[in-house]
Amino acid sequence: MTIVSGTRAATLYGAAESVEDYYCNYGVNPDYVREMGARGLRVSGWGGEGEARIVEIPGHPFFVATLFLPQARSTASAPHPLLAGFASAVLGP
Fold first, then answer.
1. Residue closest to 43 by CA, chosen among 60, 57, 31
2. Alpha helices in 1-93 (DSSP H)
3. Which residues face 62 on adjacent strands?
4. Cα 3–chain centre separation
């Protein structure tokens, strides 16, 4: 998966790419990606075939949604970057 530079996802991952397991038969209709962007929802992670995998709302305290399960590869000793970021946002500064 390619992570868009300058996004919250990129900051949390600290990388331009990540490998995530995707088990879902659903996805974002590509016909609506432009409209979503015009209304403030930014795609910040793209799958290998150009499909949206992470979306976020820039400027929101923490609105990040995925089409994969970050908890599937997260443990207490090595939390997934998105889950660690969410916990950090909840706890505050």
1. 57
2. 8-13, 33-38, 81-91
3. none
4. 8
Residue 1 near residue 53, CB atoms below 8 Å: yes
C-alpha to C-alpha distance for 85 and 93, rounded to whole angstroms: 12
d(CA 1, CA 82): 14
Q: What's the CA gap between 45 and 1, in Å, rounded?
A: 6
Q: How far apart are CA 58 and CA 50, in angstroms?
A: 21
Residue 53 CB contacts under 8 Å (≥ 6 apart), including other chains:
1, 20, 22, 45, 46, 47, 66, 67, 68
Tokens of 85: 């970021």
pLDDT digits (tens, 9 = 90+) for 9-44: 999 999 999 999 888 788 899 999 999 999 999 999
Q: How far apart are CA 33 and CA 67, in angstroms?
A: 14
84 contacts 93 by C-beta, under 8 angstroms:
no
